[in-house]
Amino acid sequence: MNILIDIITYAAPVGFACYGGLLSEKVGIVQISLEGMMLIGALTAVIATSITGNPLLGMLAAMFCAMAAAALHNLFTLVMRSDHVIVGTAINFLAIGITGVLSRTLQKSHPGILKAQSLPLLVSGMNVLTMLFILLIPALWWLLYRTRLGIGITAAGELPKAVTAAGYSVFRYRFFASLACGAFCGLGGAALSIGISNNFTDNMTASRGFVALALIVVGRWSPLWTAIGTLGFASLDVLQASLQASGNTWLPYPILLALPYILTLVALGTAKASVRPPRYLGITTESQP
Amino acid sequence: MIRNSALSFTIALLWIVIATSTCAGIVMIAGASPMSVAQALLQGAIGTQYNISNTLVQTIPLLITALAVVIAFRAEMFNIGVEGQFLLGAVLACWAGQLSVPGPLAIVVTLVASMLGGALWSLIPALMLHFRGVQIVLSSLIMNFIAVQVVAWVVRGPLQESIREYPQSDPIRTAAELPKVIAGLQLHSGIWIALAIALLFDVLVRNTVFGQHLKAVGSGSRASKTMGLPVSRILVTTVLLSGALGGLAGGIQIAGVTHFLADPYSKGYGYTAIAVALLARLSPIGAIPAALLFGALTSGSSAAQSAGIPVVVLQVIQAVILFSILGARFTANSLRNKLAKGATA
Amino acid sequence: MSQPVLSIHNITKTFGGFVALNDVSIELHPGEIHAVLGENGAGKSTLLNILAGITQPTRGDIKLNGIPVAFSSAVDAAKAGIGMVHQHFMLVPTLSATENLILADMVENRAWFAWPAGPVRRRIAAQAESFGWDIDLDARIDTQTIGAQQRLEILKALQGERKILLLDEPTAVLTPGELPGFFATIRSIAATGTAVVIITHKLDEVVSVADKVTVLRRGRVVNQCLTADTDVSNLAREMVGDASNAFAVLTAVKQKYTASDNGNIRVELSHAAAISGDSVLRQGSASIQEGEIFGIAGVDGNGQDALAALLTGNTILHEGSLTIGDLVITPHRKCTPQDFLRNGVSYIPADRQTDGLVMSMTIADNILLDRVSEPPFTKFGMFIDTVAVKRFAQSEIERFDIRPADAGCIVSTLSGGNQQKVVIARAMSRKPRVLVAVNPTRGLDVGAIAYVHRALRAATAAGCAVVLISTELDEILALSDRIAVLFEGRLSETVPAGVSKVDLGHLMGGAIN
């Protein structure tokens, strides 16, 4: 049981990024910037928790700052109609740079700010974010498949003009879905920094945001399958960590580290060819009211 | 016509101002003085003979990796995996550079091996695209992460130095090293190779059948397929070419600068190359000044520490440049559209 | 005379410098079926968009039941009781009918988290039953037939208190056999007091079902009258604007052709089956000779794409055999479009902008798209001989009168007619023995249509066998020497040109002769 809790806790950061990314991609926005927004969330969570002493406030701060990055993404993709992948890459650069600069400068002026208390454990060793990760599976399913809002989200990515004809604004759907993605990534980053490690280190997201991207495709843009994929990836992570701790020598360490990625690649390659992304994914060049 | 270029110039200037002010603002928030940072950057880039040489040394991998990104972009593919291809090129160059090969052939063998390494690393994404329709952006991205581990394994295992002390390889033979352009400075003859490739690429795109096919396929039109162009073959070839270029950049880095492989190896050239490619407007000749700019920035930022700002500020500057390019493009396009509408009203 | 439910006065719409509608006025009464007739580019779609609230008029006013209104969006118009059925459906393919209707629903609770699946289904089911339709409400849209999708669109448009129903080219997706049922539906809708506006370019439908007709030409109202007071040839004349009948142009082009047993057979299809994307050819047999135009009629979506793909090397033969030009195709044999092109089979694809041309490249680039890798346009096998390319392009531009006559002109700036000329020039430049043309005059004005038809005839004079796949029955009848019909993927037997439209309609509806 402990191992299961461990796996879920380790899966939560990537899981949040997956949820955010999948909401965003369903309305048609490619989110390469999951990594950057997670990083921003991670740093903000630590700093805010250090200053206020309250991890919950740290969580909220992480959400807001990541949402700010998502708003920047919106400005360039929705308003300026730039290519999503390029904007996402730029945000990732920005995130690495700003978090790097800020973390170092703050370290100098306020030593110890990068160490913060973690989120309190609630039920059976899970903190609030870990629990939220699990609760979101049915919640997101309900939202996407049993509400009017969910239908609008699916329609916005498959046939935007149907959304317009029904009297809704495609722009608004995309704008808010993207902000929600930012919020989720912020939570994911917080789950990493104040949920697992209690500190902030350079590049601590270690490309988890990119892994989330692949998992969304493998999970066919469905909350349930993406969560399962995330848990699978996390299990490999945990397995690798425990093998390392037990002093395993027959499998070289780097290969162990590469294993989750290799398996993700295999999963990508063997996914049914009929799995289609939202038809209007990445296309915001048409006029959108 | 004159109005058009004057307009473009003004827009460019406007966005340069926006970019510079944003950077200055971020520098100030971080507690340093923009003026001294700017001075340090300038000094680090072109202040001394050594620094100029360093700038050029940084430009070389940036130029080649940018060309790799550009050629894929022209076929509407985002090869974000140049980073991994760079690493595999370095690995194979390191191995080939230690082989006993007669004199002048050593460099050739090393560099060809590096191109093979990069191409092989891009082969898997290419095959996944051809057989399964998996987007290059995703598959090559994951290959990057695997590549990092390959390097980590290789320098602790098969290619580790003979004395087995550190996770690094033996140096390559002197015969396999790229000669220096000016004795005493870091600048090596890889620069001639980089420039030659840029020119070759330009000729390729404009005057060859492949270039024409690339243009057709890259436009995204289904007409290429209907008219019998071997679309899949063209795409796969492009990806492999892109990979080979990425690998070559890694090989040149081994043969010209470090001479041995260590973990970690890359400085993120593959990712910076994206910004360079964009700034170059996907033109191979344009990639030369673009790479130079980023090379200067990279070289300059290593001196930034003395002005009180971490070297990581380079990433911020790169991001701001990228955003400014996008913003300038948007401004130019919307102004042009408004003018066109006004003309016909 | 009851008060008009909708009246528009002096409507004018300009886009930049282009006048799409000029001083158009129409009065609609409750229960009236009003046809708006015009050829491509006459302004019908713009008019419909204004009525549906999608665009706003530059000048003029709209009155609903005597009260002036201004619709700022489609939702406004919908709330005011105007429903529209678009030509290209607005149904999200991956959702079910119920889900689509929930999205579009204006009646039930429109809150974010509402899920009025029950009430919506009940309402739609009741309405479908009142029309005698049997529709699956829970299957995904992309698994349903086009006819079913259209019925869903109509149901969608009828939700709420609909005073006015707008239909954009509704019969484009129906077989002649389905038309009577459709007209009956329209009449029963009108009988409930709803006014119906049908946009069309099909003259006989106007006369069959509409009470009144407005004829548009180049954005102006040319005539407005009761359909009882006019006839097809009058309408045709008003639509086209020539003293001569529009069809006279077409029929004059057709020559007498007699199929002879000694004619060289250029295409031989035998029980062929193939698939291309969603389009399926289940069974097709035909023999096409040099010098004839073989027309393949049928409503869109009955296998035309698969047949065209098979004949041009864009898909694999599943069963049966195909002999085309010098190529003998057996099942599962891999063939590329290049093989077909090199063996004398040229292709004019259905959608010139996506399948025929690379819009961002020049006229010269497009004409030589498939030949630039062959001599005499290459130097040393790899490089392009730009001089030879330019010379060839220039000669083709002159031959086909492409305007502007500049080989370096980017194709996206050309008019539809000139773009099609580029496609034809390329197709003919290889001196083909078989020419496959799919909907070659879609979206073109009358002058360009006449040009294309002449070009097809000229091809046969040069000994080419032309396979004309078209969803425009009139075009098939005007041009073909022999005709076959595609229905649900099966090719009917070949009939001679004199066949009546009724008989053809039966074949299109699935009757087996």
Helix content of chain B: over 70%
In the CATH scheme, what's the topology name of the largest domain in chain C? Answer: Rossmann fold
How many separate domains of chain C? Answer: 4
> Count of DSSP helices of chain C?
18
Cα-based radius of gyration of chain C, to the nearest Å: 25 Å
List keywords for this structure.
heterotrimer, B: 345 residues, mainly alpha, ABC transporter involved in vitamin B12 uptake, BtuC, 2 domains, 13 helices, globular, C: 513 residues, alpha/beta, Rossmann fold, 4 domains, seven-stranded mixed sheet, six-stranded mixed sheet, 18 helices
What order do the helices and strands come in, and which of them pair?
The complex is a heterotrimer of chains A (289), B (345) and C (513).
Chain A: H1 2-26, H2 34-52, H3 55-79, H4 84-109, H5 128-146, H6 148-158, H7 160-165, H8 170-197, H9 208-218, H10 223-245, H11 253-270
Helix pairs in contact in A: 1-5, 1-8, 1-9, 1-10, 2-3, 2-4, 2-8, 2-9, 3-4, 3-8, 5-6, 9-10, 9-11, 10-11
Chain B: H1 2-29, H2 34-46, H3 49-73, H4 82-96, H5 105-132, H6 136-154, H7 190-207, H8 209-218, H9 223-226, H10 231-258, H11 269-279, H12 287-301, H13 313-344
Helix pairs in contact in B: 1-13, 2-3, 2-12, 3-7, 3-10, 3-11, 3-12, 4-5, 4-6, 4-10, 4-11, 5-6, 5-10, 7-8, 8-10, 11-12, 11-13, 12-13
Chain C: E1 6-15, E2 18-28, E3 33-37, H1 44-51, E4 59-64, E5 67-69, H2 74-79, E6 82-85, H3 97-104, H4 117-131, H5 146-157, E7 164-168, H6 179-191, E8 195-200, H7 203-209, E9 212-217, E10 220-226, H8 232-240, H9 246-253, E11 265-276, E12 279-289, E13 293-297, H10 304-312, E14 317-324, E15 327-329, H11 337-342, E16 345-348, H12 352-356, H13 363-367, E17 378-379, E18 383-384, H14 386-400, H15 416-429, E19 434-438, H16 446-461, E20 465-469, H17 473-479, E21 482-487, E22 490-491, E23 495-496, H18 501-508
Parallel strand pairs in C: 3-8, 3-9, 6-7, 7-8, 13-20, 13-21, 16-19, 19-20
Antiparallel strand pairs in C: 1-2, 1-4, 4-5, 9-10, 11-12, 11-14, 14-15, 17-18, 21-22, 21-23
Helix pairs in contact in C: 9-16, 14-15, 15-16
